[in-house]
């Protein structure tokens, strides 16, 4: 029977079972004893299977001894106890069929050696063949499955919110325009402005920066909902933490306040980390060996410790009293920078921190104004070593205050008419948050650059592949 490498190595099949495995050669080593060891990976698990190819195979001299890294093969034989450590079985081959050769082995970019991450970004279409990107890909998959499981088990419904939109959910003006207009011949109004009424949707449209406003509508009927999809931001920040296209998980909970929101965020992150430790032991062991020594203990510590909760105001005074020299100023009313966020988690408590109640003028228009009139019920969850990983808030459910906030941010209420409706028809307190999915992957895998947490990173000047 054809089995995956994962199945062949699982120990579930008994010794002597005849199987075929299909995959790609990682390495080949010829022994003096006149046989070859060919490691074959199919990506189903971290480890390749060792295939022992005896010299009496019909194609041994003509093909097996010409196999190089990247060749596709089907190997058939029996599972025998492995001499090597760590794996129960190897495959004693009776046949090795070559399905696809590597044209030019010397110039094949993915040689069996360590490559720099910068180099691998230039061959993003081939990097899934490396150990690291195989591991990151399986961990990312495990995390996405766990996202859906967590919400399903807790009574949330998954809502698919649109990617093309007319509204700027964050009001930050970082949207990519979607248009079918002929750039060389743009239709103009009498005033000389671009006439978007002649565009595909009859309106100016953009790629969404967040599904939140749309998911709020469903929260105010189905009570507990979430959206999980791609979001887009034309932020011109060429950093190791920003992507122009990233995935976001956004739950929204009716009748919830900020404290409950923070509790859900904490339970959610812990659930995800547990899933990775339980399901991806092989990949995490590799991460701990090659990428970040304490990768596993760090996640375990994150699961075991309660998150710290502090007010923004308190955070500012802690930073001011720290005696640490920061590049950016720390002052009540200014937003926290990554260096501040990292200090709060690493130096101060060494564990995740939820910072709450930020000054109203540095946060989005939809956040609920606190009774002090100066702060909003916003929270950021900061992870050690990375900074903001989640941003969330209780939403402004009072129409009069929402209108004032929109005016203050210069937003046109006509654009948000449907959003205002929620505050007119059965309004209730509600809250939610957004988890940057790639920041989560960066954290779990100990990566230094967010461009390695997604298959095809999109960043300023970078949309290849
Ligand atoms: O803090 P943000 O902007 O919050 C929102 O979009 C809200 N609508 C979420 C909500 O309440 N439903 O973004 C949420 C998270 C950030 O904490 C960060 O992890 C991630 O999204 N994020 C990015 N990740 C990668 N690249 C970027 N350019 C990102 N911008 C935000
Ligand atoms: Mg934020």
From TrEMBL:
Its UniProt entry gives the catalysed reaction(s) as: tRNA(Asn) + L-asparagine + ATP = L-asparaginyl-tRNA(Asn) + AMP + diphosphate + H(+)
EC supergroup of this enzyme: ligase
What range(s) does the Aminoacyl-transfer RNA synthetases class-II family profile domain occupy?
138-457
**What protein am I looking at?**
Asparagine--tRNA ligase
Q: What is its EC number?
A: 6.1.1.22
- Give the species: Pseudomarimonas arenosa
- Kindly state which keywords UniProt assigns to this record, in alphabetical order: Aminoacyl-tRNA synthetase, ATP-binding, Cytoplasm, Ligase, Nucleotide-binding, Protein biosynthesis
This protein's major location comes to cytoplasm
Q: Enumerate the PROSITE patterns for this protein.
A: AA_TRNA_LIGASE_II
Domain of life of the source: Bacteria
Care to name a GO molecular-function term for this sequence?
ATP binding
Summarize the subunit comment. Homodimer.
Against Gene3D superfamilies, the record matches this protein to: Bira Bifunctional Protein, Domain 2, Nucleic acid-binding proteins
Q: Which compartments is it annotated to reside in?
A: Cytoplasm
Task: Kindly list the GO CC terms recorded for this protein.
Answer: cytoplasm
Q: Does the keyword Mitochondrion apply?
A: no
């Amino acid at each position: 029977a054809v089995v995956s490498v994962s199945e062949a190595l699982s120990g579930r099949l008994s010794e002597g079972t005849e199987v075929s495995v299909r995959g790609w050669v990682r390495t080949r080593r010829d022994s003096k004893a006149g046989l070859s060891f060919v490691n074959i990976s199919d990506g189903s698990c971290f480890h390749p299977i060792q295939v022992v190819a005896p010299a009496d195979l019909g194609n041994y001299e003509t093909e097996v001894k010409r196999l190089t890294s990247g060749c596709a093969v089907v190997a058939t034989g029996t599972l025998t106890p492995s001499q090597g450590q760590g794996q129960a079985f190897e495959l004693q081959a009776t046949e090795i069929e070559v399905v696809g050769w590597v044209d030019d082995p010397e110039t094949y970019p993915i040689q069996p050696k360590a490559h720099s991450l910068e180099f691998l970004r230039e061959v993003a279409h081939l990097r899934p063949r490396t150990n690291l990107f195989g591991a990151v890909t399986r961990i990312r998959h495990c995390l996405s499955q766990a996202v859906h499981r967590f919400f399903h088990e807790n009574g949330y419904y998954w809502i698919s919110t649109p990617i093309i939109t007319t509204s700027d959910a964050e009001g930050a003006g970082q949207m990519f325009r979607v248009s079918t207009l002929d750039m060389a011949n743009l239709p103009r109004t009498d005033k000389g402005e671009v006439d978007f009424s002649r565009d595909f949707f009859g309106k100016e449209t953009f790629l969404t920066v967040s599904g939140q406003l749309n998911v709020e509508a469903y929260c105010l009927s189905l009570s507990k909902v979430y959206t999980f999809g791609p979001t887009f931001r034309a932020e011109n920040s060429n950093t190791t933490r920003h992507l122009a296209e990233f995935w976001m998980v956004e739950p929204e909970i009716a009748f919830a306040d900020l404290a409950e929101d923070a509790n859900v965020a904490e339970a959610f992150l812990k659930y995800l980390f547990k899933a990775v430790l339980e399901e991806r032991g092989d990949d995490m062991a590799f991460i701990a060996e090659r990428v970040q020594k304490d990768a596993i203990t760090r996640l375990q510590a994150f699961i075991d410790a309660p998150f710290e909760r502090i007010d923004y105001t308190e955070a500012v005074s802690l930073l001011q009293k720290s005696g640490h020299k920061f590049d950016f100023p720390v002052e009540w009313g200014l937003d926290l920078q990554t260096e501040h966020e990292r200090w709060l988690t690493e130096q101060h408590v060494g564990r995740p921190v939820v910072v709450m109640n930020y000054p109203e003028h540095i946060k989005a228009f939809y956040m609920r104004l606190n009774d002090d009139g100066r702060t909003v019920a916003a929270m950021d969850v900061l992870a050690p070593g990375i900074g903001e990983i989640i941003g969330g808030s209780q939403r402004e459910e009072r129409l009069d205050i929402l209108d004032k906030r929109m005016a203050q941010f210069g937003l046109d209420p006509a654009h948000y008419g449907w959003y205002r409706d929620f505050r007119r028809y059965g309004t209730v307190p509600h809250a939610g948050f957004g988890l940057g999915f790639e920041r989560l992957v960066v954290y779990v895998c100990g990566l230094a650059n967010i461009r390695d947490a997604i298959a095809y990173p999109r960043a300023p000047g970078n949309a290849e592949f």
